[in-house]
Amino acid sequence: MQRWLINFGWQISLLLILASYGSISTTFPVKAAPVTSIMSGQLPHLQKQGTATQLVVEGKPFTILGGELHNSSASSLDYMEPIWPKLTALHLNTVLVTVSWELVEPQEGKFDFSLVDGLIKAARQHNLRLVFLWFGSWKNGVSSYVPGWVKKDVRRFPRVQGKNGSSTEVLTPLNEVSSSVDARAFAALMHHIRAVDERQQTVVMVQVENEVGLLGDPRDHSPAAEAAFSQPVPVELINYLQQHKDSLIPEFKKDWEGAGFKTAGTWSEVFGGAADEAFMAWQYARYIGHVVTAGKAEYPLPMYVNAWLVQHEGEKAGGYPSGGPVSRIMDVWRAATPAIDFFSPDIYLPDFKGVTASYTRSGNPLFIPEAATGPEAAAKVFYAIGQHDAIGFCPFGIDGLSAEHPLANSYNLLSELLPLIAQHQGQDQMIGLLHDKDKTQKVKLAGYNLEVGFDTEGKPEPAGYGLVIATGPDEFLVAGSGISIHFSAFTPGPRNTRILAIDEGRFKDGRWIPGRRMNGDENAGGWRLQLPAGPPSIQRIQLYRHD
Question: Do 226 and 373 share a domain, yes or no?
Answer without folding.
Answer: yes
